[in-house]
Structure formats: C-alpha cells, structure tokens
C-alpha cells in the first residue's frame, strides 16, 4: 500500500518526524518494554530511516526494511556512516531475512489498519528469536483531536475493531499521549495538508492554535514464546 505522505513529500515528512513526540514519550515506553542494548533490531517499514540512528546508539545491529526504493536510497544515505546499520528493500509480508535473526521488531504507524496485516505479523514472528519482542506503534483513532481528523477522512476506520483485532492476536496495548510541536506555523499547516484531505486539513488547521497539538498513540507489544508451547499447557 502506498504511503502518499512520505512517498510524495519526503522532505516535509522529515519536518513531521522531527515534530512528533517532542517529549520522547514513545521512546520512554519502548525502553520500558525492551532494552535493545546489545540486541539485533529490525525497523519494519523504516521509511527514509529516521529512527535507525536512535536504535543504533545502543543496539548490536539494526536492519531497516522498506518497500519504496526512493526511501531506501534516502535511508542508506542517512546511515552511511553507521557500520552497524543496514537498509534493505522488502515488504512486511516477505521480509528479506532468515528465520530467528532479530530480537526486536519495531513497526511505527505501519499497522494501524489492523485486519489485513496478518501476513506481516506472521513474518515478524518468523524472523524473531524465541523471547523476542514485536512492538507496533499505532496512531490512536479514538484520541482527540488527531483521531477525529483521521476518522473524518476514513469513515470505515473502526478503532474498536482495531483494538479487538490486536487483543485477539495476543498483544498488550498501552495508551501514549504525545505532543507534536513545530518550529513555525507554516510547517504545522503544511504537515496537516499532507496527512489529510483538503477539507479535513482546513478543519484541523482552524482547530489548532499556536504551534503544537496532542496526538494519541497505542504501543502494542507481543513477545514470542521461549521454547515449545504445548496446546492446553
């Protein structure tokens, strides 16, 4: 599935990435769930590699997988000086990696449509070592105001169904409340215009005073079992 925001406006999406979660709440929750120091990390759907250097600060190795070739080139340029990082072309449902080769699979805003992502979840489990962690950072469609704007553009998007899907799939989910903060008003408005339809973007721009607004996320985690799992055991 195309991601029009980053595919068509990668420079502007860089501005968006820098503005997201300025207080580091998502990173704090991730660190609580799994200390990846000395571990092997896969960033699934890594885009142009924005999060790769952060993982590389302490991880033993980091692999970014991204299906869109122009973004792969940008990601490789970003991490050219980081010997522990590799960027590969691939899709979530066909990862170019061997079985049981990573300890953490991280996917940020790559699975928030829930049902339909089962092949990607299965592939993530395949490449995880026993005891490894799959962590999915989702936008929270129930939150205000961002979730309201999201649902306005996607009337078939059902947050309750998404929550049931991940609960049934064995994930624990945590609310995370973040702040998006921009350096100037022009950047804020430009980002809202690449995230939403023209009508919803106008509504969002009118609703935001100043340079920041809250955005809710769900951090979903599922650990791969160690050893054999016996039915009914």
TrEMBL record:
SUPFAM superfamilies in the record: S-adenosyl-L-methionine-dependent methyltransferases
- One matching Pfam family: Methyltransf_11
Output the superkingdom of the source species: Bacteria
Methyltransferase type domain residues are 42-136
Name this protein carries in UniProt: Demethylrebeccamycin-D-glucose O-methyltransferase
């Amino acid at each position: 599935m195309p991601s029009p925001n980053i595919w068509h406006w990668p420079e502007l999406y860089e501005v968006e990435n820098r503005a997201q979660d300025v207080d580091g709440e998502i990173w704090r929750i991730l660190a609580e769930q799994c200390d990846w120091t000395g571990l092997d990390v896969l960033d699934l759907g890594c885009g142009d590699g924005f999060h790769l250097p952060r993982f590389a600060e302490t991880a033993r190795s980091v692999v970014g997988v991204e299906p869109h070739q122009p973004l792969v080139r940008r990601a490789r340029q970003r991490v050219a000086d980081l010997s522990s990082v590799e960027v590969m072309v691939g899709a979530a449902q066909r990862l170019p990696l061997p079985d049981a080769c990573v300890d953490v699979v991280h996917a940020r805003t790559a699975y928030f449509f829930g049902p339909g992502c089962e092949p990607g979840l299965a592939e993530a489990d395949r490449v995880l070592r026993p005891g490894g962690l799959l962590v999915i950072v989702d936008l929270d469609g129930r939150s205000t105001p961002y979730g309201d704007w999201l649902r306005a553009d996607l009337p078939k998007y059902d947050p309750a169904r998404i929550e049931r899907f991940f609960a049934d799939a064995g994930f624990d989910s945590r609310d995370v409340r973040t702040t998006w903060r921009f350096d100037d008003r022009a950047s804020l408005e430009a980002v809202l215009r690449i995230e939403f339809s023209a009508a919803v973007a106008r509504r969002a721009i009118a609703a935001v005073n100043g340079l920041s607004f809250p955005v809710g996320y769900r951090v979903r985690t599922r650990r791969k079992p160690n050893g054999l799992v016996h039915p009914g055991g």
